[in-house]
Amino acid sequence: MKIATWNINGVRARIENVKAWLAEAQPDVACLQEIKSANEAFPADAFDGTGYNLTIHGQKGFNGVALLSKRPPEDVLIGLPGDDSDEQARYVEAAFAGDSGIVRVASIYLPNGNPVDSGKFPYKLAWMDRLIAHARARLADEEPLALTGDYNVIPEPADAKHPENWVDDALFRRESRAKFRELLALGFTDALRCCHPEPGVYSFWDYQGGAWQKNNGIRIDHILLSAQAADRLTGAGVDKAVRAWEKPSDHVPVWATLQ
User: Fold this and answer.
1) What is the 3-state secondary structure (H, E, C) of 23-53?
2) CB-count burial class (<10 Å; 0-12, 13-18, 19+) for 62
3) Active-site residue among 52, 91, 150, 190?
4) Whole-model pTM?
5) Hey, what CATH topology would domain 2-258 get?
6) Is 150 a catalytic residue?
7) 227-256 pLDDT, tens per residue?
8) Are 203 and 223 in contact (CB under 8 A)?
9) What is the per-residue pLDDT across 104-126, written as a single tens digit (0 to 9) for each?
10) Which of 91, 109, 151, 202 is catalytic?
11) Where would you tag: which of 34, 90, 131, 207 has the fewest CB atoms within 10 A of its CB?
12) Which ranges constitute the DSSP H helices of 85-173?
């Protein structure tokens, strides 16, 4: 099973790129973030004939996550548990049958948290606490689980070309990184870092300042695998070339394969 995650930065702006990438990469489950579309406005008909089932948790103009899968989703969960007042569309989860059994996959768009002196940073940390609590509960099921998405967290200095430029940013603040480590400590494996421990592996390049041309990137898109999923990990990578396509997202797809 090939699982991929990609913050597409708007489904209508990127729909042709998404379709081209699906045809080329052929993920079994594609987790999309920042679709920026309400459910009823999502251009589902554009995916007719692609062979993908759509599971959408949208929001008009902001946020929004989706699962595109070759096999029908089962046991779908819309929204991250823990706060019934949270109306932001940032989490969708489902189980998928594979040749080696069921794998549960989540598409996550974790809050950015900037500026850190606003209410956005406490919301980010509280959201991460909810994610940790939900992940802990899911791990009790002892089934393969992949928590994938745009985490808006730079885990380590090696995950940025210029980490010194991010010291005061919510993506690299010690509080955000500590929460990410707390999540990992539950027993998750960072699939991409496991397969590529070398520096210079990025998933995001800003549109400004020639970041792409200078390879001034950061790694904030992650696939975290439970022990049962990590035991089946056979490879992981970044589809970096997508960033050079016409009208690109500032993120690129990150993928992992499970046997």
Assistant:
1) HHHCCCEEEEECCCCCHHHCCHHHHCCCCCE
2) middle
3) 150
4) 0.97
5) Deoxyribonuclease I; Chain A (3.60.10)
6) yes
7) 999 999 999 999 999 999 999 999 999 999
8) no
9) 999 999 999 999 999 999 999 99
10) 109
11) 207
12) 120-139
